C-alpha cells in the first residue's frame, strides 16, 4: 500500500490549516508596512515555492540596502498579474512558459530561449523581465507505479486510449488553459473521465493521487514528493508543456540597474536541484526565511 511521506503529510497539514487564514488579504494595506515610493513590494503566488522565491528576492534586496515589503500568497496568475499592473506589487517570481501562455495563448515557443524571447515581447507595457534562471519547475503529469503498470503508461500520449477511465487532478484554472485540458485534448487527443479541481500541484493533489481519488495529477518537476513516493512522470513527447524557467518580473517604475544586478545574480545562482532541496526543507517544517537565508549565504548573496 502506498503511503504519504512525512514531508507530504506535513504539507497536507499546512493545507488543512488554511481555513484559519481565509480572511487574510495579502493585497490589503498594513499599518506597519514600509511606505514611500522607493519601497519594492514583492509578491508571490499561493504555493510554497513561489513564496520561497519571493522571500529570496526580498532578502537579497534587503541585504543590499533596499527597502522591501512582502505581500505573499496572493493567489493564481489571474489575480497577481492585475496586482502587478495596478501597482499593488512591484516584483514577483514567475515561470516563463506559463506566463507566456497566460499572455499569449497561441504561442508555439517551447525551448528556454524561444520562450524568453517571446515572453519579452508579450509582456504588458510597464512590466519588464530580468534574466531567466536555468532553474525550471515544469508542469508534468504523474501517476502512481500501480496506475502506470495497469495501463502501460510511459508517456502522456499513452493516456489517450484509456482516458475515459482516468480522473485527472489539477488546479481549477487547468480546465481552461492551453497547457492544460485544452492542449491535452487538442495535441494528445485525451478525453478524461473528469477533472477534479484541486490545489496547484500541492498536498491536496498529491493526497488525491496517492489515495486513488484521481489516477493522474498535474505536479511539478521540483516537487520532492515525486521521488519520495516513487511516482511515474509521463514523458511529454509532443511538447505540450513549454520551458518554465524561473524569472523575476518587475514594474519598470521600480527597475534600476542596482536592483537588476541583485536579482540577476540570484537567477544566475539558482538551479533546479537547489529548488528540489529547498522545497524538501519547507515540507519538513522549516520556514521560508531560514531556507532562503541559508541558500543566499551558500551563494554569497547576503
From TrEMBL:
Domain ABC-type glycine betaine transport system substrate-binding: from-to ranges: 39-298
Cited Pfam families: OpuAC
Alphabetical UniProt keywords: Signal
Record bears the keyword Amino-acid biosynthesis: no
Cleaved signal peptide residues: 1-22
UniProt keyword Plastid present: no
Name of the protein described by the UniProt record: ABC transporter substrate-binding protein
Organism: Fulvimarina uroteuthidis
